[in-house]
Write a structure and sequence with these properties.
two-stranded antiparallel ribbon; 286 residues; seven-stranded parallel β-sheet; Rossmann fold; alpha/beta; 10 helices
Length: 286
């Protein structure tokens, strides 16, 4: 499926990886519906310059929508506005997410499971699982009607199991202290596999992307909190650029259930295996 003229919905589109997706899809000639909870600069890293939003406002091939993915009414309005403007939906990228540091921005040390509160788990699942599911339920309908589409769910590999012997597994990285975030992403990954099987007959692909750890929105504030608590200077970020996820997401957007569905991809490893360069090609500059 060529992306030229296709209608692509991206959640969490105003900043971070969402912004990288929007820019990439526009370069491919797609029409983009860019959803975000707020298009107003908030002061978090990556949000201080609203030139990106101003550029999108001047384009005929972009629809900017303010939408909280936990709000049924806002999602419904966004979907109706999309159909009124572009007539259909071909691709949905579920990028919007509540990150671990969003709950604990003022905390310098990682939080343990026993230190978390029920309300924190509920809030995390409200966004990362139920919010994403609400968006899928709304925006999949045009895909089912036209019997073609692609849904890409951005998740995380912290809940992946690693075989340790016959009938024995352990978690990928339980020492990272990323609860409740990783629990919510594990649920999203599982949901995605089941959904892929359900809608295979309608020729709608559902796939999962695991980005590598990257400098997403809010990273600078979180790093500053830790540095202040330890008395150490903020260490430069060492990791891949936001754009390392773009080649894989563009590839998956071109699929339907007849070609590739129900699969889980690690972005950096896929890049290297498919001619887009290894980790060194995507490393962020200091």
């Amino acid at each position: 499926m060529s992306l030229q003229g296709k209608v692509v919905v991206v959640t969490g589109a105003a900043r971070g990886m969402g912004r990288a997706y929007v820019q990439a899809f526009l370069t491919k000639g797609a029409r983009v519906v860019a959803l975000d909870r707020s298009w107003v600069p908030t002061g978090l890293s990556g949000d201080r310059d609203d030139a990106f939003a101003r550029d999108l406002q001047d384009r005929d091939d972009v629809l900017m929508v303010t939408c909280d993915i936990t709000d049924d009414e806002q999602i419904g309005d966004a979907c109706r506005t999309t159909i009124a403007r572009f007539g259909t939906v071909d691709v949905l990228v579920n990028n919007a997410s509540l990150r671990q540091f969003h709950l604990y921005l003022d905390r310098a040390e990682p939080i343990t499971v026993l230190e978390t509160r029920d309300a924190e788990f509920q809030r995390m699942f409200e966004v990362n699982v139920f919010g994403t599911l609400k968006v899928i339920r709304a925006f999949i309908q045009p895909m089912l009607a036209q019997r073609r589409g692609s849904i890409i769910n951005v998740s995380s590999d912290g809940g992946v199991t690693v075989p340790q012997g016959k009938g024995i597994w352990t978690l990928n990285r339980p020492g990272s202290r990323e609860q409740p975030y990783q629990s919510s992403k594990s649920a999203l990954t599982c949901l995605s596999g089941y959904l892929a099987d359900e809608v295979r007959g309608a020729n709608v692909a559902v796939n999962v992307v695991f980005p590598s750890g990257t400098q997403t929105t809010g990273w600078e504030e979180r790093a500053a909190t830790r540095a202040s608590a330890t008395g150490q200077p903020v260490a430069p970020f060492r990791g891949p650029r936001l754009e390392h996820v773009v080649p894989l997401v563009l590839h998956l957007a071109e699929q339907d259930a007849s070609t590739m569905t129900g699969m889980i991809f690690k972005a950096m490893e896929w890049n290297q295996a498919n001619g887009f360069g290894g980790p060194e090609a995507w490393m962020a500059e200091d």
